[in-house]
Structure prediction request, 422 residues.
Amino acid sequence: MKLHLPVRLFRAIVVLCSLISGVATTVASMSYAAAPEDAVEVILINEDDLARAEHTVNDREFLVKADLLFDGVSSPYMGADAESWYFSGTPELSMIFTHATNRVFDVAETKTLEFDGFEDILFDANVKEVNGGGAIYLGSSATLNLIANKNVVFSGNQATCNHGGTIYGVSSSSIMLNDNGSVKFCANSSWYGGAMYGGAIILNNNKLVEFSENSASTWNYAKGGAVYGNTVTLNGNDRVTFSRNSTTGSTDDNYTVYGGAIYGREVTLSNNKYVEFLNNSADNGDQDGYGGAIYGSTITLNDNESVTFIGNKASSYGGAIYGYSNSTITLSGNGSVEFSGNLGGAISSGNGRSTITLSRNSSVTFRNSGGIEARDGGTLTMSENDKVTFSGNGIHMWGTSAITLSNNGSVEFNVGGIQVST
Prediction:
């Protein structure tokens, strides 16, 4: 049956995902164009149907030879006796998974789902109501690999009553997107991890990584507007952008929201060229919200060329970054670092033996509405930075917290200063 042209649909959705606005909700209602003669619509994901894509090597390794569209196809379960699934393509071919009402892939424990070498991989408007993962579920020690594809897009996927709008992985799972051209997650939603929820989440050596308009929203404690993971690592990417991601919860029962863009036990962004967090929010109105952009225990931003946090918001503390009790926040070896217009302060740590360290950065600028806050028992160290500037804000130390400034080229306070409260 020849009904669709996957590549044209994909291009239209990429354009929508590139817009930082509320228009991404229109993605699911877009119509498909007529198909070329060699287009293949896959009705079921099974051996007989995929034979048209020339499966090779064994029953679960497929060398794709045509654009493939999976419209309304749900949940091939990879049980204990099933092999992993490997899809290999070429730079001009696409695989599109859309409108599944019971997610697309259900990957059992220890199994692997992999997409390698395609022009386009698209998961659009897929839904899962129970158990999470609007598009993909990963069992214990399961792995998702997206490797060396030109364009990867997850848009408009939902986990309506659980976690991981596009991908849900249990705590021992691995989600890896490496060596791709463009990777975009836009307008996905769930309770925790609006775009993805998992154990180890790794995005390395991609040209572009973009999370926009993803949301975690629930009646109680929403966490991770875009990403929720035990460990979250972004390394060696050309550009990383998190924009307009959000967490929201009930305003009636005093519930707290966390991590407008990222919620993670360990969050690391290193060796990237450009890192941007723009207008993300952990905002629950009059109720508590922490970490407008990032919330975590060990948060590290090191050796990036440029880091920018602009316009992020937390309804309580940490408009840009919040480390909970006994946390470690480190910004080290970066080029330019700028915090501007973040509501709820730029960097804040919880009570206990938390540490905030700024070291060996070329320049660090705190501009407008909020600087650094170290809670009771914590420490703030600024050392060997070429230049640190506080403009319209400053440093707030609470209780028994301690501050050390050493071997910096300059530390300037314009209007603000250092405040100590008991």
In short: DSSP finds two helices and 44 strands in the chain. The longest helix spans residues 6-18.
